[in-house]
What does this fold into?
Amino acid sequence: MEALKISSIPSLQIPSKFDKVQSKKLTSFCFNSIPSSSFSLVQRNISTFKIFTTISSSVSTEPANPPELEVENRTQHEKFDWYAQWYPLMPVCDLDKRVPHAKKVLGIDVVVWWDRNESAWKVFDDSCPHRLAPLSEGRIDQWGRLQCVYHGWCFNGSGDCKFIPQAPADGPPIHTSKKACVAAYPSTVQNGIVWFWPNSDPQYKDVLAEKKPPYIPELDDPSYSGLMGNREIPYGYEVLIENLMDPAHVPYAHYGIMRTNQPKGRYIFKADREGGRPLELSVQKLDINGFIAKQEWGRSKFLPPCVFYASPLDPVDQGNGAASSAGTKKVVSSAQRRALLIFICIPVSPGNSRLIWTFPRNFGVWIDKIVPRWMFHVGQNLILDSDLYLLHVEERKIMDAGPSQWQKACFVPTKSDALVVGFRKWLIKYAGGQVDWRGKFSGALPPTPPREQLLDRYWSHVVSCSSCSAAHKGLRVLEVVLQVVSFSLVGIVAATKQAALSVAARTTLVAMAILSFAASKWLAHFIYKQFHFHDYNHALC
It folds into this structure.
């Protein structure tokens, strides 16, 4: 394929301003040729979010103009309020309307459920006011109410208690007491994702009219692909965002998994096997609303607290800085090929975060209609796994040094670290240096579990992904079917008299039994490796 061409097309419609630039050819995007198979094209697509940034920086002991982390006195600046923001919970495509779902954000346990009476997703405090049992373990009853399965209390979409089975029908209406109500958070669906406002105070009931989540028009554009994925990550929000902002680690931490561009121009001779080279990255504007960064292939933008996106285009100014309404769109020519990398990083608790990713593009959309979504997730999970342990340990070392001492503990001398330094500068300057947990946690990270549990895919992704969950169940059924076929064929051969079957027929049945059994064993290994645990040994790659 031809390289993508940059054009002035609107991207995320959120605060900040980009300069308009003329179209130029993007040379670092890797969809350069048609692969030999559809699956190889899938493999390229699943690694899109790092294909844009595939060449690392060389080590330099005397850097030229390294990124700086000089932070002014925080008292002179407006403070970022972690609890006055919209937070994404989950993609709608991965939420089952039949059951309530437990999620945690900012240390707040919430339950997400579908209120069929109002045709809307609701977000409640995950605690029944009766005896504090988790409502996420409950059910949606025949009247569409959220029912706590501990004692049967039922709640409507506003959080009001509508039924207490233990209360006498002819007694006082105790279910109308405010103490019987459950805290309901403002919520909305935008771009196929459920968002919520982490404050249940009634004064924020209509907060959506004043402030909206960042709107991404490409996700609602039918000419773009819009596959999403989500995963629970066993390291914190800060480290997750830093890693996604760091292109220099890709050819090293993900070696053998992702196809990388070969160095060109003055870096045509590779310094090592992976082909790392210096990168020209810079943060152009940084304020309380995040920052804009320039990269060799385009621009990227951080919208605190959750959204980081990158585009091979220079997005145009989006007006007065307010989040645009869901109906506002600009026309994009179908001849202009576009692709975005969108990462939504959610603070869950110390040492834990959640990632929602999507890579909308307006070319090769047919691939997503042919290839099942779970096949994309297999490759994307492998990418996440390949540096997961590194980042889990790194976070503990940063915590040992103290988050406020990051700039002293870490040596970041090259321009390839500019975005990471920019994020840390924003965090220290405006957001208190770390996520505000409001005293919910002691500050200590959870203990490191065994490696197989740390890299577990089933509980961190499969159970929360409708596509992977269905594929896992289907493949397990196929595994059992193959075993049944194998043993049945062996039974037929054993039970049939020798004269009733020719030697050729008997040999054929035995061979089929062996093949079925071998196939079931291979499938069992495939299921375990792709849906449960897939280790990555960097030393042997």
